């Protein structure tokens, strides 16, 4: 079945609000493509100005993080309903930087996936192995375990709206990309796992991205693979190159 391509930028902790608006302006004509869902996942403080800047274009707004409670005494946190009200449609969950730097585990990530759906946000659920696990050839079991835990209690109808990003940690921000065959192997494995955990119709609908040093030069080959429905892009999402990835 034809799945709609989704190209998402992960701006991470880059761009002040005024810089964010300037980047939207710079990318505006470059990211036009009616056949692709384009998403800018931006720092919380940039959400409102970016939502305003992309109004009337094909760009959707995403966030990078939230806390699982709706409101209350959680100093410094931001909730899913707050994001929704500000115009956010997609939310990155389980990025390796949140897992490794901020200690987020699969129990919390699973809670976040369920909370995001309850609030009407579409999760972009990240998974991926370290270089050590890749070298030890245990990466397939690792990915299987991450996805199985992270989707515990999530329904088939929800998974049909889910985006899963396969992001080998050794390829993030390193300039080292998984080969198209390596990326396809794991994306195919994730789709088979969804068929096993749910059913074939759900596996056929879930969109799976590759992420890890995707750029204007390697995007077309990665995106030509049958199980790769899009990309989650860090560094290259902050440059005009992002437009070339959208139109690869
Ligand atoms: C990311 O952090 O999601 C990512 C894929 O980063 P980069 O493209 O810079 O490797």
Description:
The protein has 12 helices and 8 strands. It starts with a strand and ends with a helix. The longest helix is centred in the C-terminal third of the chain and has 18 residues, at 180-197. The radius of gyration is 17 Å and the shape is globular. With 248 residues, the protein is an alpha/beta fold. Helix 1 (17-27) packs parallel to helix 2 and helix 7 crosses helix 9. The protein has helices spanning 17-27, 47-53, 80-85, 96-101, 106-118, 131-135, 139-150, 156-159, 180-197, 200-205, 219-223, 241-246; strands at residues 5-10, 36-42, 59-63, 90-93, 122-127, 163-166, 207-211, 230-233. Phosphoenolpyruvate binds at residues 10, 167, 172-173, 211-214, 232-236. Phosphoenolpyruvate (PEP) is lined by residues 10, 167, 172-173, 211-214, 232-236.
Secondary-structure blueprint:
Layout lengths: L4 E6 L6 H11 L8 E7 L4 H7 L5 E5 L16 H6 L4 E4 L2 H6 L4 H13 L3 E6 L3 H5 L3 H12 L5 H4 L3 E4 L13 H18 L2 H6 L1 E5 L7 H5 L6 E4 L7 H6 L2
The chain binds phosphoenolpyruvate (PEP).
The site of phosphoenolpyruvate has 13 residues, from strand 8.
Offer a few descriptive terms.
248 residues, alpha/beta, TIM Barrel, 12 helices, 8 strands, 40% helix, binds phosphoenolpyruvate
User: What percentage of residues falls in helices of 4 or more residues?
Assistant: 25-40%
User: How many domain modules?
Assistant: 1
Q: How are helices and strands ordered from N to C?
A: EHEHEHEHHEHHHEHHEHEH
Rg, Å, rounded = 17 Å
- Alpha-beta content class: alpha/beta
As residue ranges, the low-confidence spans are none
- Measure the end-to-end span: 20 Å
The rough form would be described as: globular
Question: Under the CATH scheme, which class?
Answer: Alpha Beta
Arithmetic mean pLDDT: 97
Number of strands: 8
Sheet with the most strands? Answer: 8 strands, parallel, barrel
Number of helices: 12
- Sheet with most strands: strand arrangement: 1-2-3-4-5-6-7-8
Strand content: 15-25%
CATH fold assignment: TIM Barrel
